[in-house]
Specification:
Elements (H helix, E strand, L loop, with lengths): L1 H32 L13 E3 L4 E3 L4 E2 L2 E2 L15 E7 L1 H4 L9 H13 L4 E5 L7 H15 L3 E5 L9 H4 L14 H13 L2 H19 L8 H21 L2 E5 L14 H11 L7 H22 L2 E3 L1 H4 L15 H31 L1
Parallel strand pairs: 5-6, 5-7, 7-8, 8-9
Antiparallel strand pairs: 1-2, 3-4
Helix pairs in contact: 3-12, 4-8, 7-9, 8-10
Length: 362
């Protein structure tokens, strides 16, 4: 009987401790971000779904991510400015940068410093996980809402690793739990910071082996048909933007591994493993080969369509100082991206700056 009482006391103590931590996590979200104490609080709360797929919910907020009245990350549109939209996925939306330091925001400051006035507005219309195919469908509405003169296209290439990814029904509602332990996400973030990298790598590799065993498919490299399809989709996006009245500018995809596309250090091998966790069907070195071939497709399309090309893959230095993981920028990396984009855009924007100066002098 004493043992049973002791066991019950321990169980009640553990339960009370967990409930206290959960309450503190919810209170912290409420005080820090204005989150509700009850209900689900995760990144999905800033999105809604329509016939095309997922898009931003107007004026929604999740932690540091704040959307404007159009459902785009960043400030409200200002009148009488030359607008540039940044199209892409999570690399453009921004994940790891300090708030307000994602590359579209830094690009806007760079361009206005060059112009000597608040002449340009850069609008971040990207969403994490957005594919080129979704962007094709969204482009006419986006151009109508924002009225941009220029559209920067920074595609996320890994979406073409596995073609069924592009055939998923984006409008299908996601199944979300009615109750979610918020301390669970806090513990996951804590584990990422505290667990030794070899142990994290072992856990990732074990998860990859499990996925491979279940699905039974492993590729050494992305099939050529995937590269051709990417080129075709990107070409269609370019045409859609031009038809809608925006001038497309293509940007090659930069990664932590640089233009030489090799992993010379075992300390960086774990980054490839973490990338593969999202696409276990492709071996680690296949990602490097994919980046090279798809970036070549971007360069080829720019030459075919006589488009401005900004070769970020060759211009941004590799390494952890610029990339928080395999392809997402740090604040420093976002600054480099913004600087290279500003330099590449200046020839296109010079006429707007000149016209504005001439108008003001009258």
């Amino acid at each position: 009987m004493r043992r049973l009482r002791s066991t019950l006391k321990c169980a009640v103590g553990v339960l009370l401790a967990v409930l206290t931590l959960e309450f503190c996590a919810r209170l912290d979200d409420c005080v820090s971000y204005g989150a509700s104490m009850w209900g689900t609080y995760d990144p999905e709360i800033i999105y809604v779904r329509d016939s095309v797929g997922r898009k931003g919910k107007p004026r929604a907020r999740y932690k540091k991510w704040q959307l404007n009245s159009l459902g785009f990350r960043g400030p409200e549109l200002e009148p009488d400015q030359v607008r540039i939209i940044c199209m892409g996925s999570s690399e453009t939306f921004g994940l790891y940068e300090t708030p307000g330091e994602e590359y579209p925001r830094q690009l806007e400051r760079e361009l206005n410093a060059w112009a000597g006035r608040n002449l340009f507005q850069v609008v971040n219309v990207a969403y994490p996980g957005e594919t080129v195919r979704t962007q094709i469908l969204r482009a006419p509405q986006t151009v109508e809402e924002v009225r941009p003169q220029i559209a920067l296209i920074y595609p996320s290439l890994a979406q073409y690793v596995w073609l069924p990814w592009l055939k998923l029904d984006p409008a299908a509602p996601s199944s979300r739990p009615h109750f979610e332990w918020r301390i669970a996400s806090n513990l996951r973030e804590l584990a990422k910071r505290l667990l030794p990298e070899p142990l994290q790598n072992y856990l990732r590799e074990r998860e990859i082996r499990h996925e491979v065993a279940v699905h039974g498919m492993v590729m050494d490299r992305v099939p050529e048909e995937n590269i051709i399809l990417f080129h075709h989709d990107l070409e269609k996006l370019v045409k859609t933007l031009r038809d809608a009245g925006a001038e497309p500018v293509l940007v090659t995809h930069a990664t932590r591994f640089g233009p030489v596309l090799s992993v010379s250090s075992t300390n960086e091998r774990h980054v490839l493993v973490s990338w593969r966790k999202f696409f276990p069907m492709l071996r680690e070195d296949g990602f490097l080969d994919m980046e090279w071939r798809m970036n070549e497709a971007i360069r080829q399309l720019a030459a075919e369509q006589h488009l401005t090309l900004i070769d970020a893959a060759r211009e941004i230095s590799p390494g952890k100082q610029n990339f928080a993981d395999f392809s997402h920028f740090t604040t420093v990396g976002a600054h480099l991206m913004a600087s290279h984009l500003a330099g590449g855009l200046e020839p296109l924007l010079r006429r707007y700056a000149t016209a504005s100066t001439a108008t003001d002098s009258k």
